Amino acid sequence: STFKVAYFVGSLSSTSINRTLSRALIALAPQDFEFTEIPIGDLPLYSPDFDDDYPPEARALKEALAASDAVLFVTPEYNRSIPGALKNAIDWASRPWGQNSFDHMPAAVIGASIGQIGTAVAQQSLRGVLSFCNARQMTAPEAYISFRPDVYTESGEVTDKETADFLRNFMEEFRTHVERVLTVIPRS
Ligand code: FNR
């Protein structure tokens, strides 16, 4: 059987290094992971006024999460937190009240920045949000990627062995985590 992994790229940039990182992660992931990106760029800003009638983009987001076994966040750090577009997507997914899409869902967090601490602060912020959303987060290993352009091709090939091994291990650990969580809490 395969594990269906939904993933968010937290950047709307056409030259996003986090999108490049997501391609690398997909290429290095275990064979039985099947990936679907959940787009966040066309979502309106969330308001409770939508709770009775979600727009198509938000409906699609919730359906994609419901059809997935696990969720992966690949995000930049904006001003020491996560980008507003990603927070907005999470807010949509967490609502309407009682229909939180992340409830008990296996999750992992990773991100790249051009700075030395590689989205560490954004990831801590995201972890707080996901805790409240009751996602089952992988807490170790952590992955703070200080992006070096020479290490990644645009299609997601990783040219540095140490980096490739690190990212491959991260995804293998995520697989173990997903399997463990789903053993105890099967997706309904
Ligand atoms: C940044 N950047 C940034 N980097 C960082 O390490 N910590 C930070 O807090 C911020 N803050 C920040 C705010 C805003 C509004 C922008 C546009 C950028 C730099 C960031 O790491 C860099 O732009 C990355 O390329 C963003 O990732 P994507 O969009 O290329 O995936």
From TrEMBL:
Query: What's in the GO CC field?
Result: cytosol
Residues forming the NADPH-dependent FMN reductase-like domain are 4-146
Organism (species):
Knoellia aerolata DSM 18566
Which is one Pfam family of this protein? FMN_red
| Leader sequence residues | none
In alphabetical order, the GO MF annotations are: FMN binding; oxidoreductase activity
Q: Where are the annotated coiled coils located?
A: none
- Protein name from the UniProt record: NADPH-dependent FMN reductase
UniProt cross-references to InterPro entries, sorted A to Z: Flavoprotein-like_sf (IPR029039), FMN_Rdtase-like_dom (IPR005025), NAD(P)H-dep_reductase (IPR050712)
